[in-house]
Amino acid sequence: xxxxxxxxxxxxxxxxxxxxxxxxxxxxxxxxxxxxxxxxxxxxxxxxxxxxxxxxxxxxxxxxxxxxxxxxxxxxxxxxxxxxxxxxxxxxxxxxxxxxxxxxxxxxxxxxxxxxxxxxxxxxxxxxxxxxxxxxxxxxxxxxxxxxxxxxxxxxxxxxxxxxxxxxxxxxxxxxxxxxxxxxxxxxxxxxxxxxxxxxxxxxxxxxxxxxxxxxxxxxxxxxxxxxxxxxxxxxxxxxxxxxxxxxxxxxxxxxxxxxxxxxxxxxxxxxxxxxxxxxxxxxxxxxxxxxxxxxxxxxxxxxxxxxxxxxxxxxxxxxxxxxxxxxxxxxxxxxxxxx
Amino acid sequence: xxxxxxxxxxxxxxxxxxxxxxxxxxxxxxxxxxxxxxxxxxxxxxxxxxxxxxxxxxxxxxxxxxxxxxxxxxxxxxxxxxxxxxxxxxxxxxxxxxxxxxxxxxxxxxxxxxxxxxxxxxxxxxxxxxxxxxxxxxxxxxxxxxxxxxxxxxxxxxxxxxxxxxxxxxxxxxxxxxxxxxxxxxxxxxxxxxxxxxxxxxxxxxxxxxxxxxxxxxxxxxxxxxxxxxxxxxxxxxxxxxxxxxxxxxxxxxxxxxxxxxxxxxxxxxxxxxxxxxxxxxxxxxxxxxxxxxxxxxxxxxxxxxxxxxxxxxxxxxxxxxxxxxxxxxxxxxxxxxxx
Lengths: 340, 340
Description:
2 copies of one chain form a homodimer.
Chain A: E1 3-8, H1 12-21, E2 26-32, E3 44-47, H2 53-60, E4 65-68, H3 75-80, H4 87-94, H5 96-105, E5 113-114, H6 116-119, E6 123-127, E7 137-140, E8 150-154, E9 160-168, E10 174-176, E11 180-185, E12 188-194, H7 201-214, E13 219-228, E14 231-238, H8 248-251, H9 256-264, E15 278-284, H10 290-294, E16 300-303, E17 313-320, H11 324-339
Parallel strand pairs in A: 1-2, 1-4, 2-3
Antiparallel strand pairs in A: 5-8, 6-7, 6-8, 9-10, 9-11, 9-13, 11-12, 12-15, 13-14, 15-17, 16-17
Helix pairs in contact in A: 1-9, 4-5
């Protein structure tokens, strides 16, 4: 009685989903334009455009559920395969303006947004669509004219960046991981620590719950938050497993990947309890020699099998309840990758 | 810089090796006579006899290491591919008489063995070769004549069955997991608990060390032990990852599977520290519905993707630091599988 899940996208998130699914007797099948898609190492790979109707039908054929691993999947493609999370989540998340207005309509606080008159100066100007990892962003110092596809956002003097990863099952039941505290470098996530100390967990869960329920959501969702003077502002949500939840593989009873698989298949969700204090460090650009990473006691190394390229996420390392010296050892190795 | 490991055998042990290897950027390639070999879900599968020279050469072609996942691999096959662990471990382990004499030559205590005159009556009569999970065993009540391929073993009034799983790296460094306490049912492992309370860890490590060093061993090795009146007798060793070490996936910092991969590739070994008190229960015969297993909080479910068959190991469940009620819930589900 083996189950199959189809997944639009075959990157590292798909790969980690398949690795979490295998012990449940669940196989993954991926659709990705790249023959080298790294999820192909651990599942069946259909190679072609994400929106190819014939391939989408093959992806869904005999599958017990179809999901996706990136937020720029075409809404029509997700509809065609009856994806979980529902295509609505993509629709609302793909346009930053629609996303912010969803937050507003649900009473979820955000930074000011709209025109530069709305935000004041200086402000961040972002593409409304297809931005990620800080791409498509610039700072406006003067009242320039924005394009139709652009949105201004207030530059928030936040105290820290947090994120909450949540899962909602087919019956509407929800679970929440402890908040993670995140540091970015050049717009790319560098480090997450979880559980974030002294964080407003209840407030974050209320924000996530509003979104999950409004979207009739099934699967894992992440919300990026700014903590400003003790309150939380929602920045954006991602309708998928999230880089700031990678610590859960080694640092929580059930990983975000396993809970996503459980959710889309209608299986009971697993405990999100943290096993200790986790630090997750991204390996970006090129990965340090694996033997040096593995030589750090307690380092859990995750490489994605991707070719090196500046700015590309190639892997991550998680430490649980490690002392600062070991964290510093991994951080030094990870930093060497970013700089080269 | 992705690495590849070849593996003779594509059963659940190979499958779990590949799942542990993927995060290190390591791919597995398997050789198995069955098209349905369950490791084929998570790696490349060459289908054919274990001793086919052409397939063995393909298995080893471009691989950074070749290993095996069962102890009845032909010694010549292991030699041909330069396997780790070395073929010597197979040679000594495949014949129960040779194995016992290795123990004796190393000063490792065992039950009495040899002829029925050596052991006294009643005694266990075992095939010298190709027995596993209690197959090929009978009890002799009278002085019957043994075949050349048979060996008598004293029936030891042991207090409990224990096992130690150890790993030795290419440089001779060794690590040891805490002893597990094991219960068998009909000759098949049913439950392991680790760390075994009040166990003679140091004595077990000395036994394992003698074996590892004598065999110039590289990889994970398990030694099954009887505890009798406070001392340990070696029963047999297995030159591979071991069912009594499955708890390490969820219950130790580094799993036995990851440490085997690290060892055969010459990478640093990982911490064997236990995260808590683990209970591992085998699913044998047919697996209970996965949703019922997953509904038990904290249950880590591992299904191997194998078709049900009486007496066949189909999966296992591990609980870490769980209360007895939850363990009983899983045990009841697991038992229903054995009986049907």
